[in-house]
Specification:
This protein is mostly helical. The chain has helices at about 1-15, 20-50, 55-75, 80-100, 130-155, 160, 165-185, 190-205. The radius of gyration is 22 Å and the shape is elongated.
């Protein structure tokens, strides 16, 4: 998951307006936050397997975490060279996570004493948080309602009378569930598919 997240992040950073476009910047910051959480989970997993070196492992991965938070700060207040610098830094991290050679990560600076790994460096979305909660709730509950209705209809003659294949109903239900998973986990799969489709459309013009 951590490798996929970095790949998605690099794809978004490859966009010329990645840090100028507000929506793109918000997506990038969200992926950075996800990376911090995934890095923390990886640290716990490795330290549990090597109990004799827990303190050293925790400290090493905390440096990676600060590295990520610092780049989040750069993304919030970017300069002309920020996007290229972030691309270079995340390619560097991708190689480390791909090979599993976490010791290759070298941090030349010191972590500030007031740095709290629980702090969140983020840029707030301009959308109202209450509206987002309502949307998330609707997206979460809709597939369940749709599935219930479809199962009820299957037991009646309504679907049969309209000659609707049950395979179509099953695919619709699965599609809703995939949309829900993509929304909750913020994988960005749907957005990526849309971007690819738009790119193909532009190439055919």
């Amino acid at each position: 998951m951590i490798i996929i997240t970095i790949i998605y992040l690099l794809v978004e950073l490859n966009h010329a307006q990645a840090l100028e476009d507000m929506n793109l910047r918000i997506n990038i910051l969200q992926r950075m936050k996800n990376l911090v959480r995934l890095n923390r989970l990886l640290s716990i997993k490795i330290s549990n397997q090597n109990t004799s070196y827990q303190e050293w492992i925790t400290e090493h991965f905390k440096k990676i975490e600060f590295f990520l938070w610092e780049r989040s700060r750069w993304a919030i207040v970017p300069i002309s060279s920020t996007r290229e610098t972030l691309e270079k830094d995340f390619r560097y991290l991708l190689n480390i996570y791909l090979t599993g050679r976490y010791g290759d990560f070298v941090w030349s600076g010191d972590i500030p004493k007031n740095f709290n790994s629980e702090n969140k460096i983020e840029e707030k979305s301009s959308k109202d948080s209450l509206f987002n909660k309502i949307v998330n709730f609707v997206l979460a509950i809709t597939p369940l309602i749709v599935l219930l209705i479809l199962f009820i209809l299957i037991e009646t003659e309504i679907i049969k009378s309209r000659n609707i294949p049950q395979d179509v109903i099953f695919l619709i239900a699965i599609s809703w569930l995939l949309l829900l998973i993509d929304r909750i986990l913020k994988l960005g799969i749907i957005d990526s598919i849309v971007k690819i489709a738009q790119g193909i459309k532009d190439l055919n013009k």
